[in-house]
Design goal:
Blueprint: H1 2-25, E1 29-31, H2 34-58, H3 60-65, H4 69-85, E2 89-91, H5 94-115
Antiparallel strand pairs: 1-2
Helix pairs in contact: 1-2, 1-5, 2-4, 4-5
Length: 129
């Protein structure tokens, strides 16, 4: 359980970096303080861990029909939900949520690529026999 909590907190910090970049780059996303930024990353992580998987299953036909584009809309909805739940996190409309979610997804993807799925820098050994 301790390892999972460390992994969750590590991923929350990566999400916080993505949210911070979204705030810097987009006019429609803001946080009242750094504490709200971290709280938003944690809440977004919980939403993405529990609510998003259920919605991914329920909306799978839309995702298939749109060749995956619907996942971007789902990510925007999860970001908007986090902002709705937290008074210190502000998302001004659909496009702010859409672009903000895209930024957070890209930063999280890069973080997972660099640090691996378990956190910590991963070293990949390529063997040529």
């Amino acid at each position: 359980l301790e390892h999972h909590m460390d992994n969750f907190l590590f991923r929350a910090l990566i999400a916080a970096a993505g949210l911070w970049l979204a705030e810097v780059w987009l006019d429609g996303i803001s946080f009242d303080s750094g504490t709200w930024l971290l709280a938003s990353a944690i809440v977004l992580g919980v939403i993405n861990g529990f609510i998003r998987p259920l919605l991914m299953i329920l909306t799978l036909p839309f995702t298939v029909i749109t060749l995956g584009f619907f996942v971007l809309l789902l990510n925007a909805a999860m970001l908007a939900l986090a902002a709705w739940l937290l008074s210190g996190f502000h998302v001004d409309g659909f496009w702010s949520a859409f672009w903000g979610a895209l930024i957070v997804s890209i930063v999280s993807g890069i973080g997972s690529w660099i640090f691996g799925p378990q956190g910590g820098i991963q070293v990949k050994v390529i063997r040529r026999d």
